[in-house]
Design goal:
The structure is a single chain. By secondary structure, the protein is mainly beta. It has four domains: about 10-95, no CATH class; about 100-275; about 275-380, no CATH class; about 390-465, no CATH class. It is about 5% helix and about 50% strand. It has three helices and 36 strands. It has helices spanning about 10-15, 35-45, 90-95, and strands spanning about 20, 25, 50-55, 60-65, 105-110, 115-125, 130-140, 145-150, 160-165, 170-180, 185-195, 205-210, 215-220, 225-230, 240-245, 250-255, 255-265, 265-270, 280, 280-285, 290-295, 295-305, 310-320, 325-335, 335-345, 350-360, 365-370, 375-380, 385, 395-400, 405-410, 420-425, 430-440, 445-450, 450-455, 460-465. It is elongated, with a radius of gyration of 32 Å.
């Protein structure tokens, strides 16, 4: 005996009342788990708990309760079909079997400044059919200060998340939605923020770490133009980890590090959600590649973006004894405008960095030191115009205990083939002092002798106190 079929409209909605055979009466779309529901049906018939199994039939999840109860032997096998409106089709079987994600997810946002509209939609890309469908759409009317704005980072794992900001001039609500990428259905909705006032057109986004921890980006309530990044969706577990202008590009690196881009200053920033794995005392980060290394320290750098959209370089410095690797320098390059950070050397606890920024018409350079053990900046030189004989890799260089430094630099004159080398030193406020000069190759053996600076010029000993 098979229960009656649902109508076409009912099958489309998947949220209707299904009538079982008359021996059961009417069975409502109950919320309990399938096993508990099957035991409940058996208890109503006065029999023993039945055997249960979950099968997938067509597009719906069907519970087949096979009872061995003597009370139903005369009636034959009883089949109860229950529409599970609270779970997407196949979700339980997918969890049990560890099915691979069928969809990837991304959010498309388009702005129409002439109309004053921001359109957004959450798109699911089917890996089997290679087609896309919209899971959710939103339109925000900037002039009317009402509507819906969606945002989220691309996702290709088991779950994806996105943010929905909606409201009108009186109140705005921010929700974080969790999507099952096996079934393509929204499985959880979290109300994370509610505040008085109209929704903002500032970007929103969300990411989920493999541990299940969610980080989300939304406007700061009552602070126009300001954004905040929060970690956690539970009312008692949310915490603000960043506040500022131009926050975007929210992402997860190495399964445990939250990354975002800050507009002021223009650089990437990071937060470890858990302690990263280590090798030789320093965190292992897939994107960051070694640039300089000593037995005590390791300097790594990573690049983001592309030549067309602009590239960003980020430099981390790790002191092996502590295992900390904060960001100590960054650079950017877009078309002919650049701000580069060249790593010169690690001397003891100090990293020496040379910076250059400008375009084809103007160029400025400077150099500075950073203490790798404490992440404290030492001395930064005054800005100099290009060309400047600043410190370079593999050239003589010394650094004192307080971060002041001296080096041998070289100018290459355009007017002729000859080169000239000079000895420079900085004082504690960054003023650069020239101590000596000579033809190329004559200035050698730069070193510290107590509190004095010593070197050789064409074989003759020279010296001077640090400025």
């Amino acid at each position: 005996m098979v229960g009656p079929r649902a109508s076409g409209a009912c099958r489309e909605q998947r949220n209707c009342l299904v009538q079982a055979p008359t021996v059961f009466g009417f069975v409502k779309p109950l919320v309990p788990r399938p096993a508990a529901l099957a035991r409940g049906l058996a208890s109503r018939l006065g029999g023993e708990p039945p055997e249960e199994r979950l099968a997938l039939a067509g597009s719906g999840a069907t519970l087949i309760a096979l009872s061995r109860s003597n009370a139903v032997l005369g009636l034959g096998l009883a089949l109860a079909v229950v529409g599970l409106a609270w779970a997407p089709p196949g979700a339980i079987a997918a969890r049990a079997s560890g099915a691979q994600p069928r969809y990837t997810m991304h959010v498309a946002v388009r702005s129409d400044l002439a109309e004053g509209l921001v359109s957004s939609e959450v798109l699911l890309d089917d890996q089997r059919t290679h087609r896309s469908r919209a899971l959710r759409k939103g339109v925000l009317m900037m002039r009317g200060h009402r509507g819906r704005l969606l945002g989220g980072a691309p996702a290709d794992g088991r779950l994806g998340v996105y943010v929905e900001e909606s409201g009108d001039t009186s109140q705005t609500r921010v929700r974080v939605m969790v999507v099952d990428l096996v079934t393509g259905r929204t499985v959880r909705r979290h109300m994370v923020l509610r505040y008085e006032g109209a929704p903002s057109s500032l970007p929103v986004s969300a990411v989920m770490a493999p541990s299940g921890l969610i980080a989300w980006l939304a406007p700061a309530p009552g602070r126009p133009g300001i954004q905040q990044i929060r970690v956690g969706v539970s009312r008692h577990a949310r915490r603000v980890v960043a506040t500022g202008h131009g926050l975007e590009r929210l992402g997860i690196e190495d399964s445990a590090t939250l990354r975002w881009f800050s507009g002021r200053p223009q650089t990437y920033q990071y937060l470890d959600l858990r302690a990263p794995d280590r090798r030789d005392g320093c965190p292992v980060r897939e994107r960051f590649k070694p640039a300089l290394s000593t037995p005590e320290a390791l300097v790594t750098e990573a690049s983001y973006g592309s030549r067309r959209s602009g590239t960003y370089e980020v430099v981390r410095a790790c002191w092996r004894a502590t295992g900390r690797d904060p960001v100590v320098a960054s650079g950017t390059r877009y078309l002919e405008v650049s701000a580069s950070a060249d790593l010169v050397a690690i001397v003891g606890e100090w990293l020496v960095v040379s910076e250059q920024w400008g375009d084809r018409y103007n160029c400025q350079v400077s150099a500075y030191t950073v203490n790798v053990a404490t992440a404290r900046q030492g001395v930064r030189t005054e800005e100099q115009s290009c060309p400047w004989a600043g410190p370079r890799r593999d050239w003589p260089l010394v650094v004192t205990a307080d971060g002041t430094f001296a080096w041998v630099g070289s100018y290459v004159w355009v007017q002729g083939p000859t080169t000239e080398t000079l000895v420079f030193a900085t004082n504690r406020i960054g003023k650069v002092v020239e101590l000596d000069r000579g033809p190329s190759g004559t200035l050698t053996d730069l070193r510290l002798a107590g509190d004095q600076l010593a070197w050789r010029n064409a074989g003759a000993d020279r010296g001077a106190p640090m400025p």
